[in-house]
Amino acid sequence: MSGALLFSFFVPLTVTSYLATRQLFVTYRHPLLNPVFLSTVILIAVLKATGLGLEDYRPAKEVMTYLLGPATVALALPLYHNRRVLVEHMLPVLTGVIAGSLATMAAALVAGRLLRLDAPVLLSLGPKSVTVPIAVEISRLAGGDASLTAAFVVATGMIGSIMGPSLLTLCRVRSQVARGLALGTVSHGQGTAVALLENETAGAMGGVAMAIAAVFTALVAPYYLPLFLH
User: pLDDT per residue over 115-124, tens digit each?
Assistant: First the structure.
């Protein structure tokens, strides 16, 4: 197929897959019906069935990647609607995100040390809970592998967005502010997307947590990550 034909095939397929799986998730609320996870499975199945590869999907991927910018900016809308909630909970928000960012890095690095992972792998694993562009730069500055970090970030977001809501419910976390902060801090954009499906307040707090966690992690990671290598 030509590039234009592939583009016209994969863009509608991606959008349709996401919308269909999102509706399934909203209807049944089962963790494995997570829209990002399930739509990814559908796209991989279509690529396999048609004999196409990642390079054939690249034109559509570039469009989806470009739209991440506007989508991130659009998170300002639910935040604006919930600005009073943010002001009322400013101290808990800052404290929770900072503590969560330090804890998630520490948990990953301690687990990596117990598994006897090499130092470059540990440094690549540390910034796994922030969005890919920032995590990759942190990894490079610390001496990790950027490609490996990107894979860890995607895996973290996928696992967190699938298991996070159920785990929070199991722990009886009912506050939409707390749920959004937890999902945004640990699972960056994917967690925030799931939080938005739960409630606009949770989605707004997820966006705030994602931004604060990214800035804070970028500032402290170069000094914090090496502490776990000795």
Answer: 999 999 999 9
